[in-house]
Amino acid sequence: MLSGMTDAAYVASPWEWVSNQVELYERTGGAEGNALLDTGMPIIIVKTIGAKTGAVRKTPLMRVEHNGEYALVASMGGAPKHPVWYFNLLAHPDAIEIQDGPKPFAVTIREITGDEKAQWWQRAVADYPPYAEYQAKTDRQIPVFIAARR
Length: 150
Description:
Elements: H1 3-6, H2 16-27, E1 43-49, E2 56-62, E3 65-66, E4 69-73, H3 84-91, E5 96-99, E6 104-111, H4 114-127, H5 130-136, E7 144-149
Antiparallel strand pairs: 1-2, 1-5, 3-4, 4-7, 5-6, 6-7
């Protein structure tokens, strides 16, 4: 576990389906709870430190992986504002872990733009087609971060 997370308490999501999925995923080492609801589309668990609370937060995100790196797409379903975890990444960029299987691992992140974002966006939409709909329904540009193992 990262140094920034050792003293922080975990606070489960207020959304029951999210907290249940995280618990099942972690309890089974990713053998169960590894897909978005009943879609069959794979997810990862992203662990952050809350920007306001300082608590450990765990968020299931769509699994968009390429050559060992992961895209973290801050879509929030096309809502007009960024998801809370986006601000957690910005506030504590050195205290992020991903779980894609049995064990979590530390990552470094960077927000991408331009041609690199366009390339990753194509991958993201290929892996999870609703991302295209989410971008179409919001005026904000959906941020994309790349997470790489430390």
